[in-house]
C-alpha cells in the first residue's frame, strides 16, 4: 500500500470516529461500523428510536473540497450495500435512510440527511 493510500486510510478512519462521536452527541446509537458487502461498504449504521440510518462518511483536508466529496455513483454504492444489510439492523416498521456526514479539520461536521432517495 502506498504512503498516500495509508494516509488516506488514517484520515478516513479518523473521520469515521469523529462522525460516530457526532452521531452519539446528537442522540444516535452506532450499531455497526465498516459493514462490508459484495456491493460495497457502509461506514456507519446508527439507530435512534425507530429510524435506522446508513451513513457514508467523507473526510477532506479542506472544507472547500467537501463539495466534491460525494456524488450519485458513491451514493448508489452505499444504497446498494445498505439494501443488502438492512435486514440485519432494521425491524419491521422502522424507517430507513441514507445520510452523509462531511468532515474537514476544524469544521463542525456537516450532515446531509436522507441524501439518497430511492430511484436516484
From TrEMBL:
Gene3D superfamilies: 3.40.1350.10. Keywords: Endonuclease, Hydrolase, Nuclease. GO terms for molecular function: endonuclease activity; nucleic acid binding. Pfam families: UPF0102. It comes from the Bacteria. InterPro entries: Restrct_endonuc-II-like, tRNA_endonuc-like_dom_sf, UPF0102_YraN-like. Belongs to the UPF0102 family. This is UPF0102 protein BES08_03845. It comes from Novosphingobium resinovorum.
Amino acid at each position: 500500500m502506498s504512503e498516500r493510500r495509508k494516509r488516506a486510510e488514517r484520515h478516513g478512519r479518523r473521520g469515521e470516529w469523529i462522525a460516530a462521536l457526532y452521531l452519539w452527541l446528537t442522540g444516535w446509537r452506532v450499531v455497526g461500523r465498516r459493514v462490508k458487502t459484495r456491493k460495497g461498504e457502509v461506514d456507519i449504521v446508527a439507530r435512534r428510536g425507530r429510524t435506522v440510518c446508513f451513513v457514508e462518511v467523507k473526510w477532506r483536508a479542506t472544507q472547500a473540497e467537501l463539495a466534491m466529496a460525494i456524488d450519485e455513483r458513491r451514493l448508489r454504492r452505499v444504497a446498494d450495500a445498505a439494501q443488502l444489510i438492512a435486514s440485519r439492523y432494521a425491524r419491521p416498521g422502522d424507517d430507513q435512510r441514507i445520510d452523509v456526514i462531511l468532515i474537514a479539520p476544524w469544521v463542525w461536521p456537516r450532515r446531509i440527511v436522507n441524501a439518497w432517495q430511492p430511484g436516484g
